Amino acid sequence: MPPRSTLRNTLHAIDRRSQWLLPVYLVVLVFATHYPADVLPSESIIGIDKVVHVLAYGVLGLLIAMRLPQSSAIKTVLLTTAIAFGIGLLDEITQPYFNRMCDPLDLLADLVGAAIGSAVWLNIRSGACPVTD
Predict the structure, then answer these.
(1) For all residues of the chain together, what is the average pLDDT?
(2) Mind spelling out the 3-state secondary structure of the chain?
(3) Less packed terminus of the chain by CB within 10 Å, N or C?
């Protein structure tokens, strides 16, 4: 019987490949957030865009944290959040050029997502997520 793979092993395998995952994800994120608003479907649930921002930047935060050198948890979360803040700020500032609205609450949702994503990576890295397939 083959050994059971764990979520941690899977994510460590992804970590080894993350040097290209992060830039690819950033390109996808930039294209997704700069798609002209007039061709997007209207928002059917109020505030759903904030949930999407938290999820998108949660993945970004996870990928950034995976690329950082191992250090204390607080340093990892702060550095990840600072990097994501820079990316999110640039994203929000440039959106009006693509017929999109700059929204400070989107930036806040980005920060929350990045912090959650980095915290998830820290839990995985420490072995606190013993989830098996």
Answers:
(1) 82
(2) CCCCCEHHHHHHHHHHHHHHHHHHHHHHHHHHHCCCHHHCCCCCCCCHHHHHHHHHHHHHHHHHHHHCCCCCHHHHHHHHHHHHHHHHHHHHHHHHHHCCCCCHHHHHHHHHHHHHHHHHHHHHHHCCCCCEC
(3) N
Task: Please indicate, yes or no, if residue 66 is contained in any of the structural domains.
Answer: yes
Query: Is 3 within a domain?
Result: no
Stronger pLDDT, 130 or 127, i.e. the higher one: 127
Kindly state whether residue 7 falls inside one of the protein's structural domains: no
Q: 114 and 57 in contact (C-beta within 8 Å)?
A: yes
Tokens, residue 129 = 């997520």
User: How many structural domains are present in the chain?
Assistant: 1
Does the residue 6 lie in any domain? no
Q: Whole-model pTM?
A: 0.80
Identify the band that residue 21 occupies on the pLDDT scale cut at 50, 70 and 90. confident
Q: Which domain holds residue 83?
A: 21-36+43-126
Could you tell me the CA-to-CA distances from 126 to 102, 112, 114, 116, 123 in Å, in that order?
Answer: 37, 21, 18, 15, 5
